[in-house]
Amino acid sequence: MSKEHTYTNGEVTIIWRKERCIHSTRCWKGLPAVFQPGQRPWIKAEGQATEAIIAQVEQCPSGALTYRMNGEGAAEERNDEAHVRMEVTPGGPLVLHGDVDVVLPDGSTEHRTGRSAFCRCGASANKPWCDGSHRRVGTLG
């Protein structure tokens, strides 16, 4: 079970799961009044308006930062992401089951439903999608 660290401004509670953090720096570069990695505690939830905090937390690429609204009738933890299941296939791609929007390197977005196979060997000629190159290069065993 992961250890959660929580920080609140009264309206919203920020939840941080350290072991999920990939240190992308998006949080503190995007909202330095709230996210201050050199300080303890490193999250100062009173540093900005709730809306700004939510918008920044939603930029966390790893899911290490999430939030929940406080108060009566507040929903449990919010991440606003639909449930997606990921399967690591032996010797093959990562397969996502569900609806996903994939933001490509050129900034365009491609919506996929059902199953999507993502290259994890690095040899695909159609990245990020798997094209079966892992069989040819033998990098995944």
List the helices and strands and how they pair.
Layout: E1 5-8, E2 12-16, H1 26-30, H2 50-57, E3 65-69, E4 85-88, E5 94-97, E6 100-103, E7 109-112, E8 115-118, H3 133-137
Antiparallel strand pairs: 1-2, 2-3, 4-5, 5-8, 6-7
Describe the protein in words.
This protein is an alpha+beta fold and 141 residues long. It has 2 domains: 5-69, Alpha-Beta Plaits (2-Layer Sandwich); 85-137, Ribosomal Protein L9, domain 1 (3-Layer(aba) Sandwich), CATH 3.40.5. The protein is 13% helix and 24% strand. It has 3 helices and 8 strands, in the order E-E-H-H-E-E-E-E-E-E-H. The protein has helices at residues 26-30, 50-57, 133-137; strands at 5-8, 12-16, 65-69, 85-88, 94-97, 100-103, 109-112, 115-118. Strands 1-2-3 form a 3-stranded antiparallel sheet, covered by helices on one side. Strands 4-5-8 form a 3-stranded antiparallel sheet, with no helix packed on it. A hairpin with a 3-residue loop joins strand 1 (5-8) and strand 2 (12-16).
- Give the ordered list of helices and strands: EEHHEEEEEEH
Biggest sheet, open or closed, and with what strands and sense? Answer: 3 strands, antiparallel
Q: Would you count the extended β strands for me?
A: 8
- Looking at the structure, what is the overall shape? elongated
- Roughly how many Å is the radius of gyration? 18 Å
The helix-and-strand class reads: alpha+beta
CATH fold-level label of the largest domain: Alpha-Beta Plaits
Number of helices: 3
